[in-house]
TrEMBL record:
InterPro entries recorded: YtzH
Organism: Peribacillus asahii
UniProt protein name: YtzH-like protein
Pfam assignment, any one: YtzH
Amino acid sequence: MPLSHEHQLSLLTDILSNHKTDCCGSVSECEQVKRLAAALLGNQHIDSHVKTILTDIYTYSQNGINTNNLEEHITSHQDSLTQWVDGIHQFS
């Protein structure tokens, strides 16, 4: 059974919040974030403000997958992670 867009957003913000709190993550988490962002970007029920955030999250996850130092990548995006999670909660 596929996840609803509400559950997808919840899962996405949970992973991003963990990245923010732990300052670390895994490539598989970045791959999951990328898949969630891509699925949500294609959903007509998602607010346009959230889609703008999702585009940034997609890029973040793609770069995280390809980086040689994932912890540094996550640490360098601490402010963005907070803004993205807050923005999703505000508009969803």
